[in-house]
Amino acid sequence: MPALFFVLSGQQYQPNPVPEKKHKFTVIAHRGDHTIFPENTLEGYNQAIKNEADYIEIDVRTTSDGKLVSMHDATVNRMTNGKGLVKDLTFEQVEGLKIKAKNSQDTATYRVPTFEQILKLCKNKIHVYIDFKEADAMVTNNLLKQYKMEKEVLVYINKPSQFIDWRKNVPQMPLMVSLPDSAKNLQSMKNFVEQYHPDVLDGDYTGYDSAMLAYAASINLPVWPDGQGPLESPAVWDKAIAIGLKGLQTDNPPAFVQYLKGRGLR
């Protein structure tokens, strides 16, 4: 995470509250449930709801004519039958693309979802973790207000200009940032938090220890880092819980939720 953030100098730091928690341990479905369905599709998001995840993580980008859509990559090349940068394509062009299924036996047609479609699907069912790839804070927030979902989301920040955009225009929005690699211990974590005032912390779960998490808890700062990846397994989840984490992002929400139920954490 770049270190040139908007600093709220002269103000008492108190993290913005996150959406109301429903469980002891927060489960974030990374790009929805893509164990069955393609990532960042309405089908994958709906499956995460069925899995009882607390959040879906979505990637928001803007088409050339100003429509917000969900696509992780800057281009549509990997995920669809088309080519090109999302920002260079019109919504009509993106809307006509077909997302590739996970296997050749799946003959269903998957489309790139709009932000509005995602909000309609998720309203009053699951919270939304917006990975803010390329978009405008006011445009995004106006849609949240339209669907009355301002209290059901948090926003992950990818660059300093986004942090400034949200803090200036929607100061009450909970903003998540990654703990930088340079913050390897309690003191360096404190320095980062006191300077940049995040509302939620992300990063790799292995970058935290019990002392760092105790400090975060003392100032009501949620730490919900990444557990997902090729090595994700119950061994990873065991380690995350052992150091004191209360939330984690996962690539396998159905298995993780069942694991947490077995540990008495759901």
Q: How big a fraction of the residues is strand?
A: 5-15%
> Whole-number average pLDDT?
95
**How many extended strands?**
8
At CATH level 2, the architecture of the domain at 26-61 and 120-262 is: Alpha-Beta Barrel
Q: Specify the helix fraction band.
A: 25-40%
- Protein structure class: alpha/beta
CA-based gyration radius: 18 Å
Q: Quote the distance from N terminus to C terminus.
A: 31 Å
By CATH, the superfamily of the domain at 26-61 and 120-262 comes out as Phosphatidylinositol (PI) phosphodiesterase
What would the principal axes of the Cα set say about the shape? globular
| Main β-sheet description | 8 strands, mixed
How are helices and strands ordered from N to C? EHEEHHEHEHEHEHHEH
CATH class assignment of the domain at 26-61 and 120-262:
Alpha Beta
CATH topology of the domain at 26-61 and 120-262: TIM Barrel
Number of helices: 9
Structure description:
With 266 residues, the chain is an alpha/beta fold. The protein has a domain at 26-61 and 120-262: TIM Barrel (Alpha-Beta Barrel), CATH 3.20.20.190. The chain contains nine helices and eight strands. The protein has helices spanning 42-50, 91-95, 115-122, 137-146, 160-169, 186-196, 210-218, 234-242, 253-262; strands spanning 26-30, 55-62, 68-70, 127-132, 153-156, 175-178, 200-202, 247-250. Strands 1, 2, 3, 4, 5, 6, 7 and 8 form an eight-stranded mixed beta sheet that branches. It is globular, with a radius of gyration of 18 Å.
